[in-house]
User: Fold this.
Amino acid sequence: MAQAQLGIRPSSGQQRRAAIGTDKASTHQLKELVFVPEGFNAADLCAKVRRNAATLRILKVRHCAQVNDTILAEMAPHCGQLRELDLAGCRQVSDEAVAKFVSNCHKLTKASFAGCVNIQSLTLSALAETCLALRELDLTLCPQVDASMVSGVQQQCPGLVRLTPGFQRYSSAGGEDVA
Assistant:
């Protein structure tokens, strides 16, 4: 089985690559973690998030079918410094688990839940209440999201300039809808 690649960006600004399961970057505090589906290792993801909680700003776990509520719950307390979260295609996460996760992410400015089919009002309420600095939100292919849910996020997050809901595409400038 091919090992997954983990893109990491140490806080020194240098970009490095290390295979999941190795610990080459453990002496550096990471700003960015990018996990891919092949060879995904949940324990490694959680350990790296926990170890880099103070500096981790970007977490991308796209299309990893193994990401579930348990993994989100384990990572949530360590993601308070996140600015960007990408869970696109993580179809096994529930609305409740994502809502609890983003409730810890007060500094979040960019989030993608594209293809997260269970996203509903709890997640959007948590974003609206917690992530007031949110500027970009992608809800493409989130079939349970409707316009009334999205409007709450728009009202609470005045800096939201890029919004892609699953039911239609439009953008928001200065908190105003542009259909």
About this structure: The longest strand covers residues 5-10. The two ends are 47 Å apart (CA to CA). Helices lie at 42-51, 69-75, 95-102, 121-130, 147-156. The mean pLDDT is 82.
